[in-house]
Specification:
The chain is an alpha+beta fold and 273 residues long. The protein is built from 6 helices and 14 strands. The strands form 2 sheets. Strands 1, 2, 5, 6, 7, 8, 9, 10, 11, 12, 13 and 14 form a 12-stranded antiparallel β-sheet that branches. A hairpin with an 8-residue loop joins strand 1 and strand 2.
């Protein structure tokens, strides 16, 4: 191909928005668009709430949020611009509510929208509609063909299939308190475990498995329960389902980090400040 033909092809691709840099810009413009998280008035989580799942970090990793790990190969224009399934998941260090980090607590048992989520109750986590396509956080038993790329542990990704593989439940992070909290309402902005119903593995962030993504340095996410010497789940498995501050001042997690980190329960009295 001569220089003139190459330049003509380049200009045609540019006009159609098909250059790699244009695709990256288009992806980021849409997937990093701000999203309003739910505001909890009673301190609890409810079906239909839009939340952000944050891991508070640990010895070898920083704060990170469960994030859609879409690249330009994940894009589709049919029927409208958006990401396509299956799509990867990672833990990004940008703690900002946006299309990439927003997930909807979705009923799978007929519970009406707006009703309270309880410990041990099955639910789904779904991306927002539109560009993120309303995909479901999904996992399954690992095998030689299907496992996390870095760690080779159980894979977690996004699919368009609302099946038993996309069902999760929240349990108390402290094993000694777990039985007492079973069936109780789940509070927002406190540490919990998110367990995959089929495999009974806990959602986890791996600080020692670094992914270089379109968005920078991030961590691999898998479904694997990490236990310490006391048979308690390690901080890899600890998540906070974040909501917006009722005062309209952003995230409760960022405005009251000590409360979230120390699991001070947010009651109706102190969430309405």
């Amino acid at each position: 191909m001569c220089l003139q033909d190459a330049m003509k092809e380049y200009l045609e691709k540019k006009q159609r928005g098909e250059l790699a840099t244009q695709k990256v810009d288009f992806l980021k413009q849409n997937i990093l668009r701000p999203v309003d998280l739910a505001v909890t008035k009673d301190g609890g989580l409810h079906f239909g709430d839009v939340v952000m799942l944050v891991n508070m970090g640990g010895e070898n990793r920083e704060y990170s949020a469960l994030s859609i790990n879409a690249d330009i190969n994940s894009l589709t224009k049919i029927p409208s611009p958006g990401i396509q399934a299956p799509c990867g998941i990672s833990a990004g260090r940008g703690i900002q509510p946006c299309t990439r980090t927003a997930f909807i607590i979705t009923s799978v048992d007929g519970s009406p929208e707006g009703s309270t989520l309880h410990f041990e109750q099955s639910f789904a986590l779904k991306t927002t509609s539109g560009f993120a396509r309303g995909l479901y956080l999904t996992s399954d038993l690992k095998n030689f063909q299907k496992c996390a790329k870095k760690s080779r542990l159980q894979e977690v990704n996004l699919t368009d299939d609302a099946s038993f593989l996309s069902r999760w439940k929240v349990v108390h992070f402290d094993p000694q308190e777990r039985l007492e909290y079973e069936g109780q309402p789940v509070l927002a902005n406190v540490r919990v475990l998110i367990i995959h119903c089929k495999t009974n593995q806990a959602l986890a962030v791996l600080g020692d498995q670094v992914l270089w993504t379109t968005y920078g340095k991030e961590y691999e996410v898998t479904a694997h329960t990490f236990l310490d010497s006391h048979k308690a789940e390690q901080d890899n498995n600890h998540w906070i389902l974040c909501t917006s501050d009722p005062a309209g001042e952003g995230l409760v997690l960022l405005n009251r980090p000590q409360s979230a980190a120390k699991d001070v329960e947010l009651t109706q009295a102190n969430t309405s400040i």
